[in-house]
Each structure stands twice: as structure tokens, then as C-alpha cells.
Design a protein that fits this description.
Pfam families: Amidohydro_1. It comes from Aureliella helgolandensis. InterPro entries: Amidohydro-rel, Metal-dep_hydrolase_composite, Metal_Hydrolase, Metallo-dep_Hydrolase. This is Imidazolonepropionase. Helix 5 links the parallel strand 12 and strand 13. The longest helix has 20 residues. By secondary structure, the protein is of the alpha/beta class. 33% of the residues lie in helices and 18% in strands. Helix 1 packs across helix 7 and helix 8 packs across helix 10.
Length: 442
Amino acid sequence: MSDYHLSRLMLVALAATVALLKQSPEVLAVDPQPTGLREMNSVASPTDSHPIAIVNARLIDGNGGAPLDDACVIVEGDTIVFVGPQSEATIPSTAERIDAAGKCLLPGLLDSHFHSRSSAKTLVEYELNNGVTAFRDPGHPFKFYHWLENSDTVIPRVFLTGGHLDAEPPAWPDQAVVIGTPQQATDAVNQHVDQGASAIKIYMRLPLSSIESACIAASGRKVPVTAHLELIDADDAIRAGVGGIEHITSFGTSLADPAHAREFKQAIIKDSEARRAWRPRLWQRINLDNNPRLEPLLNLLVQRQTFISPTLAVFEARANEKNATPEKVAAFDNMLQFFALCHQRGARIVVGSHTAAPFAAQGKAYLREVELMAQAGMQPLDIITAATKNNAIFLGAQDRLGTIEIGKQADLVLIDGDPTKTISEIDKVDRVMLGGIWVAGR
């Protein structure tokens, strides 16, 4: 059978599955806010019984409200026991006082999309030293993290999905669980959760029938499903139960002219690597003005409270820099514009670094990501909420992480600046606390 006929058959199968799914609006969706999910590694608790009182801080608690000046936060063990104005604090006489005058106190940052494979050093240099106290690796097999069991290096909280679910031929054979039937998708979800996965990642070739089965199984196990999409339209995946979308590019085929989307899919079906050249080709042709597909997609994102981890920094293109073509520059401009529309409409945004980005210094992809969010019109407080509270909800750990509140775990970052005025100030990390222990900074 020729490549052409194979491509046509696969597209016909995709269209048939989409039509069937759209006739079934009652398809189960994953619980949008699972909670109580756990990291794979153990975080040490303080051995010193003395409380820690952080005083005179400008408090940004992660909930999105105005900062509180002259604030005090008291930590006992690994738990926050007081949050409020300095004037209302009763500080134990045995407490270690940290004077945070002129500094901002934030919840530990979270990273929704970080790949580290087998490197504790990377986790320290790229994440912990930059105030990131928890991250999720979406899609790498558990074998890449077996070293966690024997490592004594202090690292952030590690949330895993296990290998991503893909179909033949997988784009990343060493990282994928290859799924051939919907039942295999169900089985893979259960196996992953049994091994500690706190989310499931689906990848570019998985058909809708298997996506639906994976989402139903994940819902039963109370974990979310997140997706990197190329061949399946994002709106169809969301209707099938997907709760998170990785990469702004995953929305391309939902927004593009249907003829352009078919052309894109035909190229990717034949060769997964073609996506790298075809993504900018597709996106630069997208017209967001008077686009009949835009409003329904935005409505769906808001209605379903789908998490968007855009990883904008990965796709950044600037005119006449780093071999950027006019096509890539125009494509990225459209990505930023669509992201801005998502935020303006109230879609749920989270921050993911994807480890590295073309216009970020080593270890600073997270910083570049938040800078681009600001460039697209997000206010600094909204970005901080996306990086903390929203990310904690996405990770299913909002019961204990993501905000500075009494009873939450003491993951904190002290900033020698004010990121509520300029988001780049978030890079001025003074100290980082993980589980009640100062682990990075001065």
C-alpha cells in the first residue's frame, strides 16, 4: 500500500472516530481537580524542633490577591502554622527569626512540564536554585527515575506520569508505551498509577478511541490526563476527557483552516519528524480574526477548566535571530496572540519550562516562560498564581502545596525583589525552603 493510500486511510479512521465521539456528549471526563496526589520521592522533615519565623516580608500567598506588607509566616516542622500581619503574630521565643525586610515571600514555584531523565544535578541547578520546589515530568518512563530510590541529593518534589501513551510508529520509542487497542490504553493507565503515576500523558499518534479509554480509566483512578497533540484536534481530546494540554502548538489543528489542518496531518502521519517544519507552517497560516473555530474552542476551554501549559519559550522566534524565518516569526506571533486570548477569556493557565528554550540561558527556561506570559499581557500576580496555585491544582497537590496558608507544607521562596511589579524579579532568589528546611540560597 502506498504512503498516500495509508495516509488517506488513517485520516478516514480519525474522522470516523471524531464523528462517533461528537455523537456521544456524555463521554466521561476526568475529575478536573483531583487532589491528594503524591510525589515519587521523599522530602526530609526538619530534625531541629525550633520554629522559623519569617518577619517583615511582603507576602504573595499565591491566591491572587494583593500582597500583604509587613507580614509574618511561622513554620513549625514542615508545616505553616501562622500567616498574617506582623502585628498579629505571636512568635515563640525559641523561633529562628528571618528578617525579610525589602523581600517578597512566595509559595515554592511549581513546574508543570520539566524533563530531567537521570540527573539530580539538573534538578538542583535548573529548578531548586531558581525557587522551583515541585515539578512534573510529563512522559518519561519510570526507569529514568529509578535513581530517586538511592539518591541523597536534596531535590524538588518529583511528580511523574510514566511513559507517554503513543501508537505505532511512536515518535520517541524509548519513552513511549505503544498502544494498539483501547483496552491496552486502559491497562497502561492502571499499570502506571500502580507504579506511582499522578497523571497520564498521551502523545501525538494515540487515536481518540484509546484517548477516551485512557481518560475513563484515569478518572476511575482519580488522576488527570494531559496531552501533547498533533493528529488529534484539541477540542476533540478535551471532549474525550483530557484535562490538560501541553504546548500551545497542540491547538493548531483546532484553529487552522480544515484544509490546512488535513495537509498538516497527512505530513505528520507519514513522518513524525515532519511536525517540526510543519508546525510553523500551519501556525503562520492561522487567522485568529473572524475565525469560526476560535470562539467554540475558547468556550470549551473555560467550560471544562482545561489546564494549558503553553511552553511558549520553546517556540519563541525573533526576526533575524537564531535562523528564524519569517514563517516561524509569524507563527510565534499567532501563538502569543492565541495565548493572550485564552488568558483574557479566563482559561486556566499553568507554567511549564520544558527544561530548555532557545532564548533562555542555561537553567532559565522557566524565567523566559513567565517573561513571555507577561509580554502576552498577563499581569505579574496572575502569572505567580499560574506558577503556584494553578500548578498545584494541575498536579493534584492543592491540598498541601501551591499557596501560603496555615496547614500547608512549608515550601517557600524568598525573593530579593518584587515580581508583582516586574515578573523578571522572580529570578532574584534569596532563599528556598522545602518542607520546612532551607535548601538553597544564602
